Structure formats: C-alpha cells, structure tokens
Amino acid sequence: MSANDAQAALAFWFGRINYEQRTPRPGDMKLHSIRALLARLGDPHQRLPIIHVAGSKGKGSTSAFLAAILRRAGYRTGLFTSPHLVAIEERFQVDGQSISQPELLTLLRDVQTAVEKAPALDATFFEVATAVGFLHFVRRRVEIAVIEVGLGGRFDSTNVSHPAVSLITSISFDHMRQLGNTLARIAREKAGILKPGVPGISGATVPEAAEVIDEVSRLQQAPLRVLGRDFGYQYEPGRVTATTWQWPRVRVQSGHQLWPWMELGLFGEHQAANAAVAVACVEELRRQGWHLPEHAVVEGLRQVEWPARLEVMCRRPLILLDCAHNVASAAALVDTLKTSFIPEAETPGRRILVFAGSSDKDLAGMVRVLASHFDHAVLTCHGNQSRVVSVEELAQICQANANWSLTLCPSAEQAWKAVGDLAEPNDVICITGSVFLAGELRPQLLESRERMLASPVRAG
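^ that's the sequence the OP posted. Answer follows.
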C-alpha cells in the first residue's frame, strides 16, 4: 500500500463519527449499519467462535483473563477491546500481539472500499473498528475470539455476533445519558447481549441489576449462571511495599468443582470477582467440548497482562496507574489501596492523587469516594478535548467534595513534572480518573522508571 493510500485509509477511519469522543444521542446507537457493512465483507463474524463480554466495569479485565487462559490452553485467540490505552493497534490482538500497522491499513482499506460502494452506509468509527476486528481474526485463522462490548450491549456494534457464551460483569452507574439513570435500565441494556439458547454468565450481584438480567435470560431462554448463586470465590489480598511483593490469590467454587488457590496477576477483590466470572466461562466452554486444562487456567490468571489496572510503575515512591472512571471503580480502587498498598515506613509519606476526568462521568461522586484517602491532588486534563473537564472545573468539584490541597496543571505532561517536584520516597502516588489520562502518562512512566530507581514491576 502506498503512503497516500495509507493516509487515505486512516483519514477515512478517523473521519467517522466517534462516540468515544462525542456523546451519542437517543437513536444514534443501532445495528442495521454494522450488519450491512459486515454483509459486504462476507460476514466474518459468523465464521468465529466468540465469547461476548459486556458490563459497566471489569469487562476488559475479564476479557484479558479469558484470552490469557485460552492462549495457555493452546488455542489461537483473538481479543477485541476498546478504547486503547496508548496505541490504537492494541484493540486488535491475536495471541497477545497487537495487529501490525500494515495489517491494520490493509483491513481499513478493505472496509473503506465496502463503505464507498454503498453511499447510504454511514459507518461510525466503532463500527469500522468492529469490522476490522472480525476480519483480522478470520484472516489470522483465530480459533476463538473474546469480544468486548464498546458501549452498553443491546445496540453495540459487537452485538451482531452469535457467541458460544455471553458474559456480563458487574453493573454500576456509568454512561447514564445513553443507558439510563437506574441500575435496572443499565442492566437491561447490558443484558441485551443475551441470545436465545446461548449460555450466559453474570457477575452482577446488586439485586436491582441481577433481577433484570435474570428476567431477560428467562425471556430469551438463555441458561444463566450467576455469581453468588451458582458459583463464588474466596479472596486473599496481595501486598506490595518498597521491599515486598505478594500476588493476590483467588479460589473459585461452583457446582462443577472446587478450584485450587490461584494467584492473580491483577490486584483487588474486584479482579477476583472478574476471575471467578472467567472461570465460570471456562467451565461452560468445557461443557461444550473445549479442552481447557487446569494448568491453563492457573497460568492464565497469574500471567495476564492488562496495563493501567492498579499497575505498579514504581515502588519508592509507590506509583500506581489506574483507569478508574466511575464511582464503583473508584470505590474498588480505594478498597485495594487499603488492603494491598499499605506503606511499611514508620513515618508514611503523603498520599498524592493525579486526577483528570470526562464530562459524562460522575466526577463529584468519584471525588467523594477518594476524598479521605488522599492528602493532595494534582488536577490535570487528558487529550480527549471534546469531553475533557477543565482543571478549573475540576478544582471547583474537588473544593466542594474533598479537603485536599491542590496543584493545577493544564496538561498531563505538566502534571507528571509537578509530581516529580512534589514526591518524596515514602509517598504513595495514584494516577486515575480516565483511561485517556493513563494512556498519555504510561509511556512517560515507563521511560522514567529507571531514573526513579524503581524495583522491577513483576518482582516477587
């Protein structure tokens, strides 16, 4: 492909309406466009065994757990997720490897050709991405694909698939403008991925949401296994300090078997719940004839790689990178800080928060949850300018909901420099509030790790 063709393919994609950056209106989310596009491309989604994953939080981590397990079992595994953290190629992975740029450009050109031959086909950015993902997995002869929902479930572009198993992780308040302002309405949108006769696994335990998912599963005649009813887990927190490292552990029990204690490569009890949902999916796939030995589950849970989920970037000072972007994920973050990241120094340092957020999030609710756990906040902006909240507005929110001293930085780069000026060896620094902020700062954190004399991240 020539340089001009490559530029044209990228311009075509990035010129589409992008609901990751612009809030959709009622009626914007629909499936007829993606169905028409995929039909022009030979319906690649119909040639893939698929695990479909929806949820308010945890769907990315659960997808990563499952992809890691399937790879260790010897299956050529596709993983489609969104949004990306640093590079857009991360959204399309085969056996843990992101799509190459030449492959991506070739696929984009094929999708562009299909769209241009049907002028009425007005595909969005995410619909193009979905088509690219399905095409990539078919052309790379993937044996099974884990497909994460982008937004909601019922009208998400990925919901054209007919999966082997449908997974719903936890349900909480998020994307309320699009999905509704009650847990019941949000759960109904997520439960839209349940298909007639297709087994479902649910990690939603809040009664208001769980009742709706049960109702939809009955209407769809989709057999459903539910966390807390049909399977459960025990959890042992991990612990990281400047001198020690202990991974968390989970033990899953179900009507099928009692699993051994297994280490998790991600911190927090919410990740143990995600792992339990993944293990319940493994049991269902086994029932369908997939060969998934116990060692693949043990290795997959331990060796999963899913950056910016309470990722330890440095141990002295302790620097954590996280993507918490709603109230429920902020609460999970605080719980994990209390159990797994307890300073061992006789004189603990300050607890510094680096925070940015988007306008469609309950930032005041997040700040209230985080308020008692931090002493100082460095407020900044991420690069997603259409939804980003200014540092001045963030400051007003923080002043109304937390008793923090504040540093205001108009860019993520300036925020990181401010942290360098502020931080002492015994401090705990947590960067959170947005996947866009985490994506902007992670390359800088990796580059500066040696300069900050960090210990190896996967030590212990």
